[in-house]
Batch of 3 targets.
Target 1
Amino acid sequence: MSNELGKKEKKFLVKFMLHIAMFLAVLALSVVLNETNDLSIYSTGFLAMSPVIPVIFLLQLVVNHYRSLDEYIQRVMGESLLWAIGVVGCAAMAYGLLSEMVEVPTISPAFMLPAIAVIFGVAQSIKLASDTREE
Amino acid sequence: MKNRLRVLRAENRWSQADLAEKLGVSRQAVNAIETGKHDPSLTLAFALAETFGKSIEEIFCPKEQNN
């Protein structure tokens, strides 16, 4: 099963990278098309939001991968996701409250999902770090 | 929950990776169960019992019945 797990992880990683590449390609295409063409407001809106489509497929890939994992890894992933959402949510709330009182630089909400993903990865690594050594 | 997983694994001369492979779970899961960080589901507990040829009660016991 360890080999099988390894193969499964590699397959997932390849698919994950392909989805990221697809996202970057759609993002680049939408930016180029928006800047080089004089499009209607609807077309511009659709193009601006189009990079979300590969992200939805990426989310589906991650959910399917999650279902294939064992109960302990699922638990670690669940807890890490809670931490990530909690930290980003608290940061967003603090930023919102702060912006009511003082002038703060504008931060795009588009960075919320990447921030959740990064904090999720860090939290998961920390939680699994102690399990990597055999006692 | 207390368990005798490490002792039983040592008796069979299996590494955590060997046991994980037999159970179809990750090595981290075996480690977490051994160290008491994770209580396995009933399905996994039955799989463990079957792997070692023992009953669930022979492998796991509540912390209060520490003997």
Target 2
Amino acid sequence: MKRTVCASLVMIVAAVLLTTPLAAHHGTAISYEMQKEIVLKGTVTQFKWSNPHVTLHFDVKDADGKVVAWSAEATSPYFWAQRGYNKNAVKPGDEITITMHPGKAGNSAGLLMKVMIGDKVVLLDNDR
Amino acid sequence: MYTRAVLSTVILLACSSVVMGQGTTFDPRDLSGSWLKSGGDRGFTNVRGEVPPFTPEGQKRFDANKPSRGRILGTPDAAAHPEEHVGRRRAVPPALSNDLIAECNPLGMPRLLFEPEPFEIIQTKDKVMQFFQWAWTFREMWTDARTVNTTDLPSRWYGYSVGKWEGDTLVVDSVGFDERSWVDFYGYPHSDQMHLQERYRRVSRDRLELTLTITDPLTYTRPFQSDTKVFTLLTKERLTLLGWTGLQENLCAPIDEVDFNTRIRNPAVLPAAK
């Protein structure tokens, strides 16, 4: 049986106020709350190194113990490869802590900012 | 004798198409190599560029296009920049857009030229080819002195292109376009009557400049002129990623993009299905 999810839905909904609305100029960012960040703990179910968007799919246990499938949008493989990342950055079963900009509709979709395994940053998009 | 030899050499160099640029010899009529756009965004013009008035038909087509790039439609941010053309202040989320790229349709010309990803120029006696990393697509520009008559030719996403050298400038004229593509990410339209002219000039070994002009009387009341696009020659080191040297296969595959839209991009902005 697939090992479930580690921890509970969390955590921080940090209203990180940005001086410039990045969303204003970015086709992707327009779908997300770029002034907010959420941090979740979960278990990776799929990491797709595909064009034009790398995507990360993971399970998160909510406050009631229910498993919720989340997905995160990331930018292109070309972007990640230029920064030294590759298709093996994360793999199914990895226990991660992920920081995202949440989607505007409040569903379980977000825009990937950072992924950590333990104390190690395994994916970081600091261009947003 | 010595003076004559020096003079001859100077004249030879002056008349040659091989010039010295930034300490390196290059042939301005050889555009071969992999080039990456430097700066600018994905627009036909820059943010200060002038967009010619639309014809009534052009206005109708412009209004029908719903891009997801630019300042967000209806926001204070969009209202605060009246100096920018309205085309840069009407973005909607991709899930509500009708940009053909959402399902990996071809970007067409000239939009493909504005991607922040490299293209390689391969030059032969009879044609100049561009191979684009984004879309993994070839484009031909024939330099064999042919002419184009589109009367019986089907329209194409990348049109029909012929080029000729004017001095050290490669002038490429293209017609026969599929009118469903957009001029750029901001959704500026064109018709199948669009005439696109591109002027390429290699001003140094590492720098290629391009200006474009669209003449499309069905859409614009006068020619639409781009800013100067600048491309930088990529070294082998910059073309090497993950241990592989060469362009990356950035092919937008519908099987992946539709999955992405279904699982992430649409749920990000649309209410959950009941």
Target 3
Amino acid sequence: MTDAMTPSPARAKGEEIIRVCGLKKNFGKLAVLKGIDERVSTGEVLVVIGPSGSGKSTFLRCLNLLEMPTAGKIFFDGFEITDKKGWKRGSLDAHRRDMGMVFQHFNLFPHMTVLENIILAPMKVKGVPRAEAERLARELLDRVGLTEKTDAHPAQLSGGQKQRIAIVRALAMKPKVMLFDEPTSALDPEMVGEVLSVMRDLARDGMTMAVVTHEMRFAREVASRVLFMDEGVILESGTPVEVFGNPKNARTKEFLAKVT
Amino acid sequence: MNFTFLSKYWTYYLIGAKNTILLALLAVVIGVLIGMLLAIGRVGKNRALKFLATAYVEFIRGTPLLVQLFIIYYGLQAIGIRFPDSPIASRILGINFADFMAGVITMGINSGAYVCEIFRAGIQSIDKGQTEAARSLGLSQTRTLVYVVIPQAIRNVLPALGNEFVVVIKESSIVSIIGIADLMYKANTVRGNTFQPFEPLLVAALVYFLLTFPLSKLLARIEKRMREND
């Protein structure tokens, strides 16, 4: 395990890092999240599964407030990040830099090289000197096997390579938690494996992760806990063995029968 | 048709074209600066800035350029604001520098409103995912605009921005009314001196076209090259 991949040791493994209380989100009249209560502990790999439109992506996007909750509270690392009073002082940005996010469509910055993509936030947000930011970037690129792409532009990369770079870009901020929003859904099938393998390594190294995915094998093998969501609520929560092996809810059974 | 006046008056057109180009260049620089600030105001979250920027754009677009020119030229003098005169600049231009600046500033203020709309469209054309990715890394809204959105937006709006330059060259003919010796003013002088009302205007039209046409062609080439690079 390299230094770069090591999550912040500020909190001991198993300690609560995210707590969600009564989270609700409406888009206009449509209630997407209807009251979610959940906790995530350090080192945990939480995998959220469920049918399309179940609210699982919205749930994930609420965790770093890319979507503003309609009601409810979210605590991260001991602070209530939904408390608007702190935002003016930049608390929102401060919380976000400790929470990496990987998107379905990668969202690399197309006008920058791979290296520039990775060092932008460490330099501009944390004030890391360029040499040090580049050193960390190269170390991370080496970890995901993309050293030769350091000076390439995103347009020259395959989908799988883009997503691995996007993961590296998030890791370069040394986040305490990594959020993955359907990281393999936009990939050609032959590239899914390379991205999942990076995520697997990350989980093995003890990174706290929340992953929304349709990859049931990944959920089964890597998750420490699986959540099944449907129609804006969490219907089932448990270890992969519990949820996949012996689902209690009828809708979980129905969903798993369709996808596995 | 009689174009023999050209042998005597061709330098008039040269001087006029020079002043037109100078005026348009300065106006575009001012217009881009104003337009960029306004665009940031319009896409930003601050409501007061958004209102001010929108009001500016709507007012400028909703009133004639000629009225704006008179307001700046006569109005500012009436309330005691006078552009500083510079004898050296006046000598180079062959006209009063203070008058010239009234023309430049009017054109710049006017162009700023249109440039704002060009930039706004450019900023809004950038995928939302870009902003989300930047914000998720902890970049503030301003830094997201400066490092991620605007650099991409500028690439997208370069063609429209170049087109605005062409428009400013043409529209600037209106400043001849306040006595700035641009191409149009010089053409009118030739008309008066030669008692020929028509032919000097044809020559002026041709010179305007010779200014704008190569520029449009150049822009088309830049645009094509940019598309190839994507």
